[in-house]
Every structure is written in structure tokens, then in C-alpha cells.
Amino acid sequence: MSSSSAELAEVFSSIQGEGGLIGLRQVFVRFRGCNLQCDYCDTPTDFSAEPCLAEQTPGRRDFVPVENPVALHRILSLIEGWHRGWPGVHHSVSITGGEPLVSHEILRSWLPHLRSLLPVYLETNGVMHTALELLIDHIDMIGMDIKIPSTSGCTDLWDDHRRFLRVAATKDVFVKVVVGEQTEEWEVERSAEIVGGEGREIPLILQPITRLDGTIGIAPVRVLELQEIASRYLRAVRVIPQTHKFMGQL
Ligand code: SF4
């Protein structure tokens, strides 16, 4: 695969449904593949021969299949067309996945071009710090996860998250932690300590886990208790669920 083409799952325009940029309209470029296997993952991460689904009209869900790998110029011309037809609608381009940093070599050539059209927002699981170092100059905003064992099933990522945040904190960054009924207090405390170690002002978002049936998997009072713990270390701890699902957005 050349660095001017990438394995993509989909490209579309929608409202950002979670995290610090919630409610803003973005162009989503969703890369295939991931370096983790979270228990709650609802994103297909395999490299099957399926085409990329590319929306033609922003937000109208008129997807057409585009053969993978997708060339950069196809993405650029799509966004340029949306710029002309719908000027000012999109706040930024969301580079998402899967885990987009798995494709860091491709992103190194893609991001300067994408950034010439829109600010670049990276949505990441917050682990691949070496890849982030290579790309940080081409990124404007970062939403990173801290994966806690009780909800993600991932263990021993604490040091990777700490190193990742050290690089990410040179940009506009927030951290998201998915919490559920089974989440233990020490997990939230340790997450908040890591974030606070880089700056008390860095926003932390506690995201109540959404079950497969669409219901929230943590009691309201438990969320407040976890927020109180994290707030010992940080100035801005917000509780924000995934909103795109109940709004019927992608
Ligand atoms: S990091 Fe995201 S895409 Fe990867 S397995 Fe976890 S939830 Fe799925």
C-alpha cells in the first residue's frame, strides 16, 4: 500500500457525539484496524476486503462503496466539494478508527493535506505514544482514552497512557474514561492522577458505558461518586454519555 492510500472503513459528515468537541459538526475519516481489543468495542476492526463507505452529500447518508485502499486525493476532493457546497459547516476533520495511529506512516503524509482544509482532531485510544510523537506537529486537537481494566478488559496500559499524554498535552487535549457499574474507585483515581500529573486544567470526561441495548450501564449516584474522586485531582471533570446513539446520528 502506498502512503497516499489507506484502508478506510467510512468517510462521512456528522455531529461529534462524545468528548470535548461534542455537538460540533465534523468530517469523520474512519481508519480500519486497532492495536487493542476492548470488551465494549462496537467498531469492526478487521482488514477484510470490504470497501470504504463514502458519503456523497454531507449528513445525508447517501453512501457509495469505494475500493480499498482509498487514495488521499479522493478524500481531499470530497472535502473540497463539501467546502464549496456547505461553507463553514464543518468545524474539523476527525481522524478516528479503530485506532488511527496504527496507520501512522500514512497519516504522516495525509495530515498536512487534510489540515490545509480543516483543523485536525485525533480520536485515539491513547497508547501509541511513539507514533504520536511523529505526527504531533500536524494535529490541532486530541481526544484520548485512558482504558481502565474494569470496562475495557485491557490491563497494564497505565504507563503507555502517561507517556502518550505527555506528548498530547503539547496540544489541545482532553481525556476520556469509560466507566461502568463494575468500575473500581482506584481506577478513576489513578486515571485522574495521571491526567493531573500533566496539568490540573486538562479536562477529564467520565463517559458512562452504553450497553448494547442502548441503556446506560452505571447507576446515576455511582457516576457522581466517581466524579467526586476525580475532582480531587482536576479542575474540570465532566460526565458526558455517548449522545450520537440516542440522537440517531452515526
Ligand atoms: S480502542 Fe476503540 S476500536 Fe480499538 S478495540 Fe478498543 S474500542 Fe475498539
From TrEMBL:
Keywords, alphabetical: 4Fe-4S, Iron, Iron-sulfur, Lyase, Magnesium, Metal-binding, Queuosine biosynthesis, S-adenosyl-L-methionine
Catalyses which reaction(s): 6-carboxy-5,6,7,8-tetrahydropterin + H(+) = 7-carboxy-7-carbaguanine + NH4(+)
Broadest EC class assigned to this enzyme: lyase
Residues that hold Mg(2+) according to the record: 43
PROSITE patterns, A to Z: RADICAL_SAM
One GO BP annotation of this record: tRNA queuosine(34) biosynthetic process
Residue intervals of the Radical SAM core domain: 21-250
Cofactor: how and how many bound: Binds 1 [4Fe-4S] cluster. The cluster is coordinated with 3 cysteines and an exchangeable S-adenosyl-L-methionine. Binds 1 S-adenosyl-L-methionine per subunit.
EC assignment: 4.3.99.3
Pathway: Purine metabolism; 7-cyano-7-deazaguanine biosynthesis
Essential cofactor(s): Mg(2+); [4Fe-4S] cluster; S-adenosyl-L-methionine
Binding sites annotated in the UniProt record for [4Fe-4S] cluster: 34, 38, 41
Domain of life: Bacteria
Binding site for substrate: 15-17, 30, 96
Assembly and binders: Homodimer.
Described function: Catalyzes the complex heterocyclic radical-mediated conversion of 6-carboxy-5,6,7,8-tetrahydropterin (CPH4) to 7-carboxy-7-deazaguanine (CDG), a step common to the biosynthetic pathways of all 7-deazapurine-containing compounds.
Recorded family membership: Belongs to the radical SAM superfamily. 7-carboxy-7-deazaguanine synthase family.
Protein's name according to its UniProt entry: 7-carboxy-7-deazaguanine synthase
Natural source organism: Geobacter pickeringii
Name of the coding gene: queE
